[in-house]
Specification:
The structure is a homodimer of 561-residue chains.
Chain A lengths: L10 E8 L1 E2 L5 E6 L2 E5 L15 E4 L2 H5 L4 E5 L5 H4 L2 H5 L6 E3 L1 H13 L9 E2 L6 E3 L2 E7 L8 E7 L2 E5 L17 H10 L1 E7 L15 H11 L4 E4 L5 H13 L3 E5 L1 H12 L13 H6 L5 E5 L9 H7 L12 E4 L8 H13 L3 E3 L14 H11 L3 E5 L1 E2 H13 L14 E6 L3 E6 L4 E5 L2 E2 L4 H13 L1 E8 L6 E10 L8 H15 L12 H20 L4 E8 L1
Parallel strand pairs in A: 2-20, 4-6, 6-7, 7-8, 12-13, 13-19, 14-16, 14-17, 15-16, 17-18, 25-27
Antiparallel strand pairs in A: 1-3, 1-21, 3-4, 5-23, 9-10, 10-11, 11-12, 21-22, 23-24, 25-26
Chain lengths: 561, 561
């Protein structure tokens, strides 16, 4: 590619819609020369603070209001936190999608489930080959990560290169031989990187992450030592891990079965596109595996995060339809727990031990490495690119702070480093970087079929219901006189077990009746609904708190008869 | 003490009421010669799986049914998971309580809040001095742990010593100079340990834990580097940690303020009993601290677990009444997150960084060491005591398995090691150890004032409510005819936001009405209440699932008018 030194005016605006100041739902809108280029479109799986919510996607209000200026969406790799919101995005925005071959295959599979297709103009990109999108010259470059065909992306502007690393690490001996394109990164650095946005996930970890290839010998050792069946739990999308499990099994004379729908789909796709090499005759079905001698079998499965419905968790609880863990089986947890999942993973391990399995897990076992750069690799990226301005991305706030500190250590002046959070507009000109404003960038909850219909009020109700339950008071009032003609009836759920609390509820009922018949008030019946409801609430809230020290939701229901 | 070799028959029964196969609510009933001796009486703070529950205590049904055979309760140390259920225990069982001086002081403070006292016959015990309880000769022995005055306890029986380590580690340079009594442990080993029950908490950690004293220099270094105020978050009960914070502050010319009610109480008690040495003039109030130059102040606070209501979390959110975190302040997290608390701790750290604080945390910072033995210390304990039989306790199942493996490594034959779980009866005779039965040992939930009135049904309701909310259908039926004379009215909470879902709820209402007026049924009105309720549920459940893919609790309420 031939680069001409551009004019040095103009500006770049960054608007993170997600993934900056948090882990998950990565989405960055870049604006240059009035054209908006989007990098990634991810989702988050919510924690226990958002009960009942299935997914969280970025709030796309800003894009909606500026949809005509969007020139394209680039996806760096196929993990859910970078690709997962694509169906929701494409229902609103018909812009070309750019991604490498495997990422495109994953995107298409995902869109198919939603009855969607990639928009016209979308294209499969090749690392190292540039193409034009609006005013941008776009260069995807190879990076190592825990899913095949991952790339970062560099955008040429009149100010120099604007580089997004995507999720990355430096793996000098990757399983597929595709190394992060260090030479190209050095070249970008020489040509002039105006702005770098780099992955901060492991900014708290000193040293280097280590090669994916180091996992292979550990897997093989564990399999060689195993006297009976071996189960390996991993992320479905970690195709190179699956490759190493298959290779280790082959070396140990074991056949391989795949358990778990997401894993089956991923393996099929990876084989089809040439990302997974399966020796002839090694794969068997789960049913076939069940009939083979235990020392001849390795089973790859999902559930490395202790997800209650995953294959491994069900095996650990003894309620998997086809596979039962037997005493002497070996289970390898080839992953680490994502923060928030620790207890679920530990519970799964405990249950496996209860069934008599040998469990191989934890850092000592060396059966897992991260897909993200540690501190020394982050410094290498910074030294290769030597950016004029630096914005740490993909990480919770403390990780961004650590990454910023690393940038200072390698010589980026503090005033050229900017920590940005979701919803902040970051303006970068030739001379300075700063936050110039904000835009709407909250969380949009997906619950069942609803997108955005569950908001903070509903979640607040769910949390209150989960803490102390609900007490429903039903009363029928005569339309004309306002006299109590039916009830009050009291029903509770999640508050106390009703059969064992009859006297409490009976007293509560008496208090409501007394409040409503006006004996405590101005002598006559009350007819204003809102007054009636607050009378009921007042009569009960303090009484129940005094008796139980709990604050259930109190829901008065008045029927006019 | 003079030991005579006893007869070699008889048996010991272990009945763990808690703390074995789980972390928390440690309570072990030992039975020998028909007399039940209890070691510890702890509680658990429940996880997010038990919403609204304040505390979990052991199910004491077995004790209730055998109360006349209980001869005493021994408490090894003052942590809540060993002492916390004492008030609930003493409301039912008036047996003598044995504990060291500081543990007794903590017990008395706790009982006072419940309007209780230690029963007659209770006594303060001294490590190394034996006393008799029923058929047992009892020997408390000094151990190191993260609270002062911790001990293990050995019981002499005709079979030899039965030893409970309590929570322990080997600290050769403890802050208070009180080392785990290695010599005495060796002596017990020489005299003959029949059965050892040892702490398994850190059985997954290789190496040794390290001395509490190593934390002091790291604290002092962080304080010396700090240009403004220093906050140190720690567990209130870790008196030696507080001592080291005070010493580091003194060395750096800083005054010390205490923030947080539990910490103030603990410091008062520790000073009063001589466990905390405070240089004259160093302590100031939080209000005084606020007026002093920032580099002259260190503030000890609670909230190392990110507890939302703790002093530190409130400061991090900017809603603490007296203390605001300012840019340039240093916050030292002198603790590690208990499993399940990781996200809360991380959120607190993120918020502190957002306020511009420097945060010192994590293993690299060396500002925390565990209070529990790691693998090499566990082996040392096993080698000192050389027990005939071994039962790993205090730990989740996988930790018990690891600890059992360590015992095998140091030479305890596999058939003399028994993993026991809460609710299992473990019988140990001269020749063998085995599980001989079970007893009721579930969890008793404390919610507000209620002890045990919230059970699994209520919790199941709370979880369902928190996932998808509730939909209440109220209908008034004429007593005589069964005709609908009021409603149906539909109210929802935690399901959908009602104002934005009017058409959905209107259609739901129509479906209920149609079901009740019998148009879909046998032509006439229905009068059986249970039939009416299931008609309503059936009419709605599938309809709502099809429309929303959610399954709210559906609660039909029928008023007879």
């Amino acid at each position: 590619m031939h680069i001409t030194a551009g004019q040095k005016n103009g500006r770049v605006l960054l608007r993170p819609l997600g993934g900056v100041g948090e882990i998950g739902k990565n989405m960055m809108a870049v604006e240059y020369d009035d054209a908006i280029f989007i990098v990634d479109c991810g989702l988050t799986f919510p924690g226990k603070d958002a009960p009942g919510i299935d997914l969280v996607i970025p709030d796309m209000t800003f894009l909606r209001e500026n949809s005509r200026r969007i020139v394209g969406l680039f996806i760096t790799h196929g993990h859910e936190d970078h690709i997962g919101a694509l169906p929701y995005f494409l229902k609103e925005f018909q812009v070309p999608v750019y991604a490498t071959r495997f990422t495109t295959a994953l995107a298409e599979a995902k869109l198919q489930e939603h009855g969607l297709r990639l928009p016209k103009g979308s294209r499969v990109v090749r690392p190292g080959e540039t193409f034009n999108v609006g005013p941008y010259r776009v260069l995807p470059f190879r990076v190592n990560h825990s899913i095949p065909d991952s790339v970062g992306v560099a955008l040429w502007t009149s100010l120099g290169w604007v580089v997004f690393t995507g999720d990355f690490k430096f793996d000098y001996t990757p399983v597929d031989g595709e190394v992060t394109d260090i030479a190209r990164l050095g070249e970008l650095g020489r040509e002039g990187v105006f702005l770098l946005c780099a992955d901060s996930t492991n900014a708290e970890r000193p040293g280097v992450t280590g090669s994916e290839r180091t996992v292979g010998p550990a897997l093989e050792r564990a399999m060689a030592l195993a006297e009976r069946r071996v189960f390996v739990a991993s992320f479905a999308s970690n195709v190179h891990r699956v490759q190493q499990v298959i290779d280790a099994a082959a070396a140990c004379g074991r056949k391989v079965a795949i358990s778990g729908r997401s894993l089956e789909q991923m393996v099929t796709l990876a084989v089809e596109h040439g990302y997974l090499k399966v020796p002839a005759g090694i794969m068997v079905t789960v049913d076939e595996a069940a009939k083979m001698p235990p020392h001849k079998i390795a089973i790859v499965t999902t559930g490395s995060q202790g997800e209650p419905l995953s294959a491994l968790s069900r095996m650990a609880r003894g309620d998997h339809r086809q596979l039962q863990i037997q005493a002497g089986d070996t289970v390898i947890i080839s992953a680490t727990a994502i923060p928030g999942n620790e207890k679920d993973v530990q519970r799964t391990i405990d249950n496996l031990y209860r069934l008599g399995a040998k469990v191989v897990y934890g850092t000592e076992a060396k059966v897992h490495v991260s897909g993200h750069a540690a501190q020394e690799e982050m410094k290498l990226m910074l030294q290769l690119l030597r950016p004029r301005f630096f914005v740490p991305v993909h990480g919770e706030y403390r990780m961004l702070v650590q990454h910023a500190e690393l940038a200072r250590q390698v010589g980026v002046p503090a005033e050229r480093i900017q920590i940005v959070e979701n919803g902040q507009v970051c303006e970068v000109t030739q001379n300075r970087i700063r936050i110039t404003g904000t835009f709407p960038a909250g969380e949009v909850f997906v619950d069942g079929l609803g997108v955005g219909d569950v908001g903070n009020i509903v979640l607040r109700d769910r949390r209150q219901l989960s803490e102390d339950g609900i007490l429903i008071v039903v009363v029928g009032l005569a339309k004309t006189t306002g006299q109590v003609v039916a009830g009050p009836d009291i029903i509770s759920r999640g508050f106390v077990y009703m059969r064992e609390s009859e006297s409490l509820l009976e007293e509560a009922r008496a208090r409501v009746l007394s409040a409503l018949t006006g004996r405590n008030g101005n002598g006559g019946p009350v007819t204003e609904w809102s007054t009636i409801k607050s009378l009921v609430r007042n009569a009960l809230a303090q009484f129940l708190f005094d008796k139980t020290k709990r604050r259930p939701m109190i829901l008065p229901i008045v029927l006019e008869i």
